[in-house]
Amino acid sequence: MGQTLYEKVFNAHVVREVAGETPLIYIDRQLAHEVTSPQAFSGLRAAGRKLRQPSKTVATMDHNVSTRSLAIDACGPQSETQMLTLRANCEEFGVELYGIGHINQGIVHVMGPEQGLTLPGTTIVCGDSHTATHGAFGAISFGIGTSEVEHVMATQTLKQPRFKTMKVQVNGTLDPRLSAKDVILAIAGVTGSAGGTGYAIEFCGSAIEALTMEGRMTLCNMSIEIGAKVGMIAPDQTTIDYIQGRPYAPKGEAWDEAVEYWSTLKSDDDAQFDAVVELNAEDIAPMVTWGTNPGQVIGVNDVIPTPEDFADAVEADSCAKARAYMGIEAGQKLSDLKVDVVFVGSCTNGRIEDIRAVAEVAKGKKVADGVEAIVVPGSGLVKKQAEEEGLDKILTDAGFEWRLPGCSMCLAMNDDKLGEGQRCASTSNRNFEGRQGRGGRTHLVSPSMAAAAAIAGHFADVREI
Ligand SMILES: CC(C)[C@H](C(=O)O)[C@@H](O)C(=O)O
Ligand code: SF4
Predict the structure, then answer these.
(1) CA 439, CA 38: separation in Å to the nearest integer?
(2) In Å, how far from its chain's centre is CA 409?
(3) Which atom of ligand 2 is nearest to the CA of 350?
(4) For residues 462 and 149, what is the distance between their CA atoms, to the nearest angstrom?
(5) Is 407 annotated to bind ligand?
């Protein structure tokens, strides 16, 4: 029987596998940030250990950085301590770090691929739940806990179970005004926020193959929002073109060998998946979440569900609770919901293509009165490129704020936060209660839908703007 892409990459990394035990696999790359690394470094220090292969770990500052100032204390003493600790740990243990002000600094899942640290057929871990982003390159990449971070630092290996496999196939051609974000939100609408639990997902089909690497990263990034720790896409020419020439990419003969190997990284025709989900791209509309998990999502012109729409009592209850938290009143449509804040950024949608999409909609228009709209590039390199393309000028002329790179309002671990009851059109990946600030109301959308909401002052169909 043939093998899936996931099985091929997993099998190539097994160090030890015996019946009745969780397999031990080799980890090619670890990425680190200030939030989940301190205890791991402390653990190493306490045990008198070093990193087994220091060059395999690369760190950046992202969650706690200010998007207004390069000062390390700009977001208060707690954030400052987190970042100073990371800096001291990286110096002590010989780990490469992109700190505040470094051109490569940025959100860990934006920085990795940009630097060529993310390569097809590799295993990549990070103490961060959105690590599946890197699966867009055909890597097995997943989030781990802090004690596992320490284990990888000490041994460059990890115990990891084999997941079941799920194929998510998106056929047809996506409307050019839609994006990968609409696709993954539409998938979440089908599977629910837990439908992928226990699976490694492979995304495939003509609509996926047509995506750029940025789009593929957006898609894989949100695998965890449907419950799956791993989301992958088979590498192809788009992948190879993206990687070539990046700082950590293989060079010369090693490049040719790598490309040859990468071309074998696809599921065999007779590979068996444990579950299959199929969608047609033509059926996907611009998507907006109305509730408090990413599965509570509808097309922009659909009717927001009421508890009566659900036969299942648990779902009906969760609908009622979500409507109450989100402040949605009877009879309201998405277009009736006024937004207070628009946030463009995060490891889901903080890449150059996302910023271009916002600028395209915003060009020559104005952000509606009373709306605070901020654009936060995912990294220093994204910021630089956007500025070279004049996108910052288009955005600031339209009334958007142009900020410094970081996680920002995706999680509000810095000082970018929603106020109580504020409604936000956000390009991030989680709409959980209080995620963007206590009492804040998050609606997940694509970058162009965020721009449309900023200009209209309420949710609007980007196809009609
Ligand atoms: C802070 C970090 C551990 C967390 C995660 O694991 O995802 C954060 O990045 C998030 O998006 O909630
Ligand atoms: S941008 Fe958001 S989702 Fe991504 S790593 Fe930062 S906090 Fe987590």
Answers:
(1) 29
(2) 14
(3) 1
(4) 42
(5) yes
Task: Determine whether the annotation assigns residue 90 to a binding site.
Answer: no
Pocket perturbation via mutation, ligand 2, pick of 346, 348, 442 by most ligand atoms within 8 A of CB: 346
Between CA 306 and CA 326 the distance in angstroms is 13
For residue 264, how far is its CA from the centre of ligand 2 (angstroms)? Answer: 32
Picking from 387, 345, 259, 305, the residue whose alpha carbon sits closest to that of residue 63 is 345
pLDDT the model gives residue 1: 85
Interface confidence: ipTM more than 0.90: yes
429 lines ligand 2 (CB under 6 A): yes
Which residues, other chains included, contact 198 with Cβ-Cβ below 8 Å and sequence gap of 6+? 163, 164, 227
C-alpha 411/C-alpha 35 separation (Å) is 12
pTM, two decimals, is 0.98
Predicted local distance difference test score (pLDDT) of residue 366: 98
Nearest ligand 2 atom, CA 429: 3
| CA distance linking residue 110 with residue 377, whole number of Å | 10
Question: Of 32, 222, 26, which Cα lies nearest the Cα of 126?
Answer: 32
Q: How far apart are CA 94 and CA 92, in angstroms?
A: 6
Give the separation between CA 213 and CA 279, rounded to whole angstroms: 20
pLDDT at position 465 is: 84
Low-confidence ranges of the chain (pLDDT < 50): none
Q: Scan for tokens 């994204």, then name that residue.
A: 382
CA angle (165, 170, 171) in 5-degree steps? 130
Selection from 455, 459, 444 nearest residue 361 by Cα:
455
Q: Spell out which residues line ligand 1, taking CB within 6 angstroms.
A: 35-36, 63, 128-130, 143, 411
414 close to ligand 2 (CB < 6 Angstrom): no
For residue 215, the CA-to-ligand 2 centroid distance in Å is 17
Has 319 been labeled as part of a binding site? no
